[in-house]
Amino acid sequence: MKDVIQRQAGMTLIGFVLLLGMLLFAAYVGMKIVPAYIDYFSIVNAMEAVAAEPGIAGRPPREIQQKLYNRLYINYADDLDRDSVRVLRARDSVVLRVEYEVREALFGNLDVCIAFKKSVVLR
Fold first, then answer.
1. At residue 3, what are phi and psi to the nearest 5 degrees?
2. How far apart are CA 113 and CA 115, in angstroms?
3. Rounded to an integer, what distance in angstroms lies between the CA atom of residue 56 and that of residue 76?
């Protein structure tokens, strides 16, 4: 009979440990940044709901901001502070703009910084 040399197929233990480490790191980073994106989508929904109110463009900027904050309070969106919301008036439109950053500590002195910007035209 002929001797058949068989090659081992599959992943080694070192390869498996490295792959598992990369997957765990990606899951850890995901757990840190997913809540920031959930808050962002809550803020976008609140902005669009405020923009959908009839006659909102004719209201004073403080009232528009307060309507946004009331909706955010209901949705438990925590990342937005008062300086991040602006109501800008141009000749033919009124724009509600939100710009803010979220900084999440990963480990040690390594942080993840995410910048969010969204503008909605009020009518």
1. -80, 120
2. 7
3. 23
